[in-house]
Amino acid sequence: MSDQGKVVPARRRGLADEVADSIREAIFSGAYAPGAQLREVELSGALDVSRGPVREALLKLEREGLVRSAWHRGATVTTLSPDDVAELDSLRGVLEQLAVREVLARASDEDIAAVEKVVDAMDRAVDEHEMVRCDIAFHDAVYAAARHRRLEEAWQAIRCQVHLFLLTRIGRSTDGYLSHIPAEHRELATALRARDAEAALALFAAHRRGAFTVLTGTTDEN
Length: 222
Fold this sequence. Notes:
- The protein is mainly alpha-helical.
- Helices cover 70% and strands 4% of the residues.
- It has helices at residues 14-28, 40-47, 51-64, 82-106, 109-122, 128-146, 149-172, 177-193, 197-216; strands spanning 67-70, 74-77.
- The protein has a two-stranded antiparallel sheet with strand order 1-2.
- The longest helix has 25 residues, at 82-106.
- It starts with 13 loop residues before the first helix and ends in a 6-residue tail after the last helix.
């Protein structure tokens, strides 16, 4: 039998994945802000790896939307354009609306408790970057509670970009961020616990508009 058409054994990419994790973590912690250059030579030295895994890692992060490459600049942390912000906001809104409806219809009390547990963690967040992580974890829990595999996969496809969206939001303003975000999310969790569709959908939409307004200085009428 000819080798043509045979499945080729997968190449192990463990090191590149670890490098991607390290760079992603640095972006999410604020070490590399939007627009910051990610130089292969510097990263390979800092991570004590060759440039090959770094190059693969940057390509992985580019697919996630966290990194952009241009021939004249190399790789940089993605800076969200107004169109990026609008697209992420509108897509996130559609996904969240379905997620909330599915949670109300299908989630168990234990699923809701997992959402509430993240809210409790928000009360202990010590800085804005930790709060952003909690915000993302809250939405992770909501999508998990929806018990809709393809919907959760759709969320995972934009999750890193939404994280970057929220990092950009706190880059614009942190005024009142740590103080009001936990209470805002507790309202969301309470509406889910009460199985109150009208309140939950309205509160999630208002929550989404809050970050959009900070980023754009406008309100989202959709």
